[in-house]
Amino acid sequence: MIQAKGYAAQSPESNLAPWDFERRDVGPHDVQIEILFCGVCHSDLHQIKNDWFPGVFPMVPGHEIVGRIVAVGGHTRKFKQGDLAGIGCMVDSCRQCEDCNSGLEQFCPNGVQTYNSMGHDGQPTYGGYSNTIVVHEDFAFRISEKLNLAAVAPLLCAGITTYSPLRYWKVGKGHKVAVLGLGGLGHMAVKFAVAFGAEVTVLSTSPAKEQDAKNLGAHHFVVTKDPEQVAASARKFDFIVDTVSAPHDINMYLQMLKTRGTHITLGAPTEPYQVPAFSLLGGAKAIAGSGIGGLEETQEMLDFCAEHNIVSDIELIDIKDIHASFDRMEKGDVRYRFVIDMATL
Q1: Band (188; pLDDT cuts 50, 70, 90)
Q2: pLDDT, tens digit, for every residue of 126-144?
């Protein structure tokens, strides 16, 4: 076994704190990665607090992992020692079901998440708030040397979570897209939608974010607390990309969709939507959801980012400041993703 160290929550009531644990030995098709940076996702906080479902404790969060290969198994093909690599939200799947055979490993009913999950070996998985990780090479991604490595980390969750639905709905030139919320997910949705050629509007309760939205490439900005601006946005958008994880009423936003428009849910509020049928029937509107992408699509996204020089806007933090960063994240006080420098572990 490989000795590892990280930050773990021992229970939903405890704070993250230093914890020593073990990783499995490197198998024939595995790679071992020295973790250099790990992004801080809002879902990390949700999971250590058991907001969504009972967790597996002790819990080492983190699924936006980048680092360098320090060991490879005897039968690996994709990587060699010294290569940069990344790991996202999943570390295994059954490889046999319809979804896995369709490149949709993220929907595998027997998929294994990077943390807060049980592996097929019966052992719990531990995430990227740690110094090293071992994973089958199929679930590690090639990372370009051209990009700021710390700013690449959030692409492994926030990046693919926004890239995937925009590609699925073939968003591009001629489409009007609204991005609801300008945080970790929202700022990446703006970058990708603009890169794909869409006309992009940011919907936000905060007028202070208008200049940031324009700097990210957004063409328009709507303050959703202003009734006049909301009224002027009626029946305007082909798609709304909803990145808000706090409870919110989406009925106002459904009125902003064109006929047959789609409200794409990416955020995961702890309270369910309350949507009258007539909010959808009038205009044949749809509410859809999307998560991360599969393995092939995630690599495609990383390659697209390398080609177009797209990374996340980040604040680099010391791991000892993780709870202060969680507090700021819940208040929306981050531009736009915290990333842990694992050298501070």
Answers
A1: very high
A2: 999 999 999 999 999 999 9
Contact of 153 with 66, CB cutoff 8 Å = yes
- For the chain, give the number of residues: 345
Which parts of 39-109 fold into alpha helices (H)?
A: 42-48, 98-101
At 246-256, the pLDDT tens digits run 899 999 999 99
- Spell out the residues 6+ positions from residue 171 whose beta carbon is closer than 8 angstroms to its own: 177, 193, 196, 198, 238, 239
Place of tokens 């905060």: 206
This model's pTM is above 0.90: yes
Q: Are 114 and 128 in contact (CB under 8 A)?
A: yes
Written as six digits, the tokens of 336 are: 């736009």
Amino acid (1-letter code) at residue 227 = P
Rounded to the nearest angstrom, the gap between the alpha carbon of residue 316 and the centroid of all alpha carbons in its chain is 17
pLDDT over 90 at 269, yes or no = no
Enter the DSSP assignment of 320: G
Q: Supply the DSSP string of 91-155, one letter for each residue.
A: EE--S-SHHHHTT-GGG-TT-EESSSSB-TTSPBP--SSBSEEEEEGGG-EE--TTS-HHHHGGG
- Residue 300 to residue 155: CA distance in whole angstroms: 12
List Cα–Cα distances, 320 to 17, 77, 317, 330, in angstroms: 8, 37, 8, 18
Among residues 89, 39, 73, which one has the least CA distance to residue 315? 39
Residue 289 one-letter amino acid? G
Which letter does DSSP use for residue 255 in this model? T
Domains of the chain: 2-156+311-344 (3.90.180.10), 159-289 (3.40.50.720)
Q: Using CA atoms, how far apart are residues 327 and 74, in angstroms rounded to an integer? A: 44
Report which residue type is found at 150. Answer: A
By the 8 A CB rule, do 248 and 268 touch? no
